[in-house]
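subagent[fold] <- orchestrator: predict structure for attached chain, return tokens only, no commentary.
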Amino acid sequence: MTKRLIATCCIIFSGLTMAQTPPTIEYLNSGKIVPKTLPFTEVVKVNDTLYLSGQLGNVPGTMKLVTGGIDGESRQTMENIKAVLEAHGYTLDNLVKCTVMLADISEWTRFNEIYRSYFTAHYPARSAFGVSGLALGARVEVDCIAVTGN
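subagent[fold] -> orchestrator:
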């Protein structure tokens, strides 16, 4: 009875130890799209998952939006997402989920046409909704989740 109890406790304890292994977390900032001084991280990598902060259609390295309204901002937003991923060794193919925030939901169709052009085989899962008051007076913001494939 005692040996069986000790064996059972050892199995339970080893299972708890493995289940409680803390995740590996990395905070990644290239500084290529927005200044590193802003109070957020460009990408947080948790094990094999990348959480990208929302991207706007700003001119890389500045806090100024590109011209061209929803078209210009949508293209630049996608270019900024692409640049963030590439700065850390990944591509748009790593994306699995995007959340799109539009200052005017009636511009969804226009955004969608531009967004579609950035993917060839599979599209990430996606949500889109209208919002009020995006940073810098932006027309669009997109945040994404990616997996590393490791």
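orchestrator: received. Logging for downstream: Helices lie at 2-19, 69-87, 108-116. The first strand starts at residue 25 and ends at 28.
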